[in-house]
Amino acid sequence: MNGFTKRGSSKPEIKRLLSRRGRNLEHGKIGAMPLDQEVSQRLKRNEAGLVCAVVQEASTGRVLMVAWMSDDALAETLETGRGVYWSRSRNEMWRKGDTSGHVQHVVSAEIDCDGDAILLQVEQSGAACHTGKNSCFDEGGPLPVAVGGLS
Amino acid sequence: MNGFTKRGSSKPEIKRLLSRRGRNLEHGKIGAMPLDQEVSQRLKRNEAGLVCAVVQEASTGRVLMVAWMSDDALAETLETGRGVYWSRSRNEMWRKGDTSGHVQHVVSAEIDCDGDAILLQVEQSGAACHTGKNSCFDEGGPLPVAVGGLS
After folding, report:
1. Yes or no: is domain B11-135 CATH 2.60.40.10?
2. Considering only CB atoms, which chain B residues are within 8 Å of A11?
3. Interface test with B, best of A90, A111, A143, A151 (most B CBs within 10 A)
4. pTM, rounded to two decimals
5. Which residues of chain B make contact with A107, given a CB cutoff of 8 A?
6. Is the separation of the CB atoms in A13 and B149 below 8 Å?
7. Domain spans, chain B
């Protein structure tokens, strides 16, 4: 039994990924994956040690949600290919889909020019928003804007 | 002379938009535009009073940048149809394109489910990134990710 197995994923791929990092799955608890040092040096974290993550659906280009990542969340995302965030409300790691089943499979990850934002392209299983909407911006909806006012 | 004229925009459209809000352009300084109360009530601001803004190119779906908005920046964006942000580094309003000419014309604005993020669809004049790249994520570039690791 390990952290991933408890959450319902016991694919051999995980073992392969973790063993690449010299981790021993027999020890019960995986613990935090260290973030690649080169990536870590590029991050510009906020006061809470987090960077912003924009999550975009690869197949449609729709922006699904904005979330936050700790170093550990980013490391786990990059290592496992699954969208993992830091829940500011629960103050804990948030492996998206553990409760809802609405897992995000990461297609690509990019960092911005000043290192304080990450852009993920994902394949989204089910709805991205906790309300059941495809995108969190579908739930919030449009704001009135003077379109092209200065064009 | 008014705030907009000093920054190089003196389009009649601005006068029209502002006069809709009962502002007198003859008074020299425009001052902050108040945010619509209904929109204001939906915002969940961070400790600095800001919300996150994700800016997406309407024609391509490419995410161009992540920026921050004060109430005033959001109000001006919605009122003028131009991308306006709060510069955290300069601690002042940032009317994107005033210096570079790389103005963003807003096509649509949406708010997310919990009110702490705004998604803008824009037509971008020139490059969005200060480095000259189309997107800030082109400048930062890809991070290594175990694609589909858990699929």
Report:
1. no
2. 150
3. A143
4. 0.81
5. 147-148
6. yes
7. 11-135
